[in-house]
Amino acid sequence: xxxxxxxxxxxxxxxxxxxxxxxxxxxxxxxxxxxxxxxxxxxxxxxxxxxxxxxxxxxxxxxxxxxxxxxxxxxxxxxxxxxxxxxxxxxxxxxxxxxxxxxxxxxxxxxxxxxxxxxxxxxxxxxxxxxxxxxxxxxxxxxxxxxxxxxxxxxxxxxxxxxxxxxxxxxxxxxxxxxxxxxxxxxxxxxxxxxxxxxxxxxxxxxxxxxxxxxxxxxxxxxxxxxxxxxxxxxxxxxxxxxxxxxxxxxx
Length: 252
Description:
By secondary structure, the chain is an alpha/beta fold. The protein has a single domain, classed as Rossmann fold (3-Layer(aba) Sandwich), CATH 3.40.50.880. The chain is 26% helix and 23% strand. It has helices at 17-26, 36-41, 68-87, 97-105, 168-176, 239-250, and strands at residues 5-10, 30-35, 51-54, 91-95, 118-121, 129-137, 151-158, 162-165, 182-184, 199-203, 209-212. Strand 1, helix 1 and strand 2 (30-35) form a beta-alpha-beta unit. The termini are close together.
């Protein structure tokens, strides 16, 4: 059986694509990094892949707002191609800047007209945050979180990671529908950026489109954790690898 293939979509300013491609390879997939302009010239490229990932970084320098220009480019030039990819059963993952992009395209948590119901705003502290956080995976149909431990650590690194919805009604409806698949553990005390409902990641109704602010590609080996020496098995894999493995397994 052929290995699943993962397309890691790049844009100017993206800087986590190599680590993300490596994580997919470690999870058993064949990965390929593709520039968004090349994808726009040949949208049929998506037909060769089962997973599409928008990795972290500062796409287009985060001018205007984080992920805004990348999101506009995708929506205007590749919107139909992304919808076809999702509807044929493809998985879409957005990490940090990629999560910001997915929300702004409306592909993730958009309303019936494709308008965004949620966004990622400036951290409540007003500062860039770079630290490890504890997370809780909530019961959901998110294919990237099936079978993983309900509590685990991942690093974050963002200035605009505070999850907000356009209204209290949207927050309540999205929560009740089970879209908030990943949350910061420990309530407000464990919430690093002031996100509504402690949301760290969200999925669509199909479970195939998932975005999260933490960086799973930065914890695929136990030795990447700051507490590994004397506390974690140095030969073990990191919790982030399980997210990639779950996605790859679901399309294998």
